[in-house]
Amino acid sequence: MLVSTPTHCPYCGLQCAMTITHETAASTAPAIPGGTVTVTGRSFPTNRGGLCQKGWTSAELLRNPDRLIAPLVRRGGRLRPTTWEHALGVVADGVESVRAEHGPDAVAVFGGGGLTNEKAYQLGKFARVALGTSNVDYNGRFCMSSAAAAAGRAFGLDRGLPFPVRDLTAACAILLLGGNVAETMPPFLGHLQAAADAGGLIVADPRRTATVERALSGGGIHLQLRPGTDLPLALGLLHIAVTDGRIDRDYIADRTEGFEDAWLAAAQWWPERTERVTGVSVTQLRRTVEILWRARQSDTGAYILTARGAEQHASGTDAVSAVINLALALGLPGRRGSGYGPITGQGNGQGGREHGQKADQLPGYRKITDPAARAHVARVWGVDPESLPGPGRSAYELLDALGTPDGPRALMVHGANVAVSAPRAGHVVERLAALDLLVVSDFLLSETAAMADVVLPVLQWAEEEGTITSLEGRVLRRRRAVPAPTGPRSELDVLADLAGRLGQPVGRFRTDPQAVFEELRAASAGGPADYSGISYPRLDSGEDVHWPCPAGPDAGVRHPGTPRLFLDRFATDNGRARFVAVEHGGPAESVDAAFPLVATTGRVLAHYQSGAQTRRIDELSTAAGPMFVQVHPDTATRMGVVDGQPAAVRSRRGRTLATVRCDEGMRLDTVFLPFHFAGDERANLLTNPALDPTSRMPEFKACAVTLEPAVSA
Ligand code: SF4
């Protein structure tokens, strides 16, 4: 029998639509239900029927031979299969023991940007109500936090793209800073086609990436900046826009505030100085401003987008603010046919940060320090607002404190693989090893799960119901498309079970995804990310709903959702967008004789995030090839390493092994490493955990390294 189910990809924030067809077989495997599962692209505004290699092969996750089926508990130094009763008993006893000895904050929770909205919501509630801990944060802190913080302070609200992706499709001018969408989310590139064909696609990236190639093929521009100089690049562009009269003075007067201070900061970034610091020529800087301004004036579509290359810095929030300042000066945000937005990376990177698994937030994107927000959420949860803990440690600070005298002694990880994905990963592994109790919920034995005391096997993407929120704030249904295997349980079920064992009343933690969503709606009502008017039936009927979508005073009136934000006013108190004056401080560490190169990290086409899933899919693993370090041929010669041969890359924090890949599209002072590989090949053994003071984002995108030949294993 053939069963076809419409759903969305398990991987990135574009959330391409797909149909999963399951053909049941006469005979079934003992634990994982048998039958073939095929994936086809489905027509949808973000992917228009297209999928990338990761999406096409995603069904292999459902039949992966490494799939975890039974809970595992460490005994005699080894993880051994056991029953759920025993595994959850070990977790509950361990948590109780740590809490009794060290207090509630000694138990920490680390979530993920791939969890459904329901799980992200439940996890934050579980941490604060069942555990009573303030120490809950998630891996989105390493992904979108700088963009979110900068959007919050400029516009009063962060929703990723404040306009639908399809608005980009007709634009003639798009400046993309720090994103390689041709590899990270290929169907997105189709939306940049018109700009590329018009010579209006401008890409700021230290590397000559596939996205850069597309821009250049249409006559666009590659701003090949030094890593860590996005901020002065944006200041220099603003300088030119102002001095060349390429700014919208009426818009600035009517819709913004703070321009004068932002201009004073940018005034110091005259073109020649900007060229000297960023490595981008004055000619290219002027052409960039001219292209954006011409498109803006002629109303042919002008957009500025940022991604992790500009954001993952110890000054990432200020870098994004500098970019937003430029967008505001050109008059782009809050208008049809123009705008600024960040491109979310993780599958539910957007919803994952709205529902309460962040250290400083409650559901609905509410501030945890706001008494009214605490009272509202406590009412929905049926608890005393005074019992809710305050803000906790941010992601890296939480990991850094594990097992220390004042830090958490037990950690529960859901949907994250921090042993690979956290900065200074060698140190993070040491901290994980110092815990009294490490519990990991996952469907594969990730590198973090392999270190755990207890591993809880959970259902994955196409085996359960839920919702996610895409990079454009559109709420989507993920649907069960195949039968769940025998053994793994839903994380909602696991958290509810654990909550009961920890003394919570029956029914406080629901297990049905739709019931959890109903509670999430109530918790978000009236907050910045208001989902109260969104329901499973609305989504199932195919409605296109972007938040905010309040229920409204009359339950019979349907709010249509908000595809485009800020058209009338920004979400600040006075409705004006705020310029923010920012200064350039440079990367947190400098190159010197011992570490003469700058390493930057990123993704490749065939892998996703820590690679825990995609490394297990043969087709993807073969396509991606081995771990590599990309370097200019002249730099390779200077450092004594050879194309195709093994090399060691060293920073002040660690050493990574990689195959040398020479590429003339690299800057002479820069090397690139993908961060999907494990063991000695982890790029994050090198990266710098220096944190942005506002977003607490680590500096993934610039650290000083050296390169030397290594002996093959
Ligand atoms: Fe999945 Fe992203 Fe590829 Fe689309 S672009 S198929 S969402 S990984």
From TrEMBL:
InterPro entries: Asp_de-COase-like_dom_sf, MoPterin_dinucl-bd_dom, Mopterin_OxRdtase, Mopterin_OxRdtase_4Fe-4S_dom, Prok_molybdopt-oxidoreductase. Residues 2-66 form the 4Fe-4S Mo/W bis-MGD-type domain. The keyword Kinase does not apply. CDD domains: MopB_CT_Fdh-Nap-like. It comes from the Bacteria. Pfam families: Molybdop_Fe4S4 (PF04879), Molybdopterin (PF00384), Molydop_binding (PF01568). Keywords: 4Fe-4S, Iron, Iron-sulfur, Metal-binding. PANTHER family: NADH-QUINONE OXIDOREDUCTASE SUBUNIT G, RESPIRATORY NITRATE REDUCTASE. This is Molybdopterin oxidoreductase family protein. It comes from Rhodococcus olei.
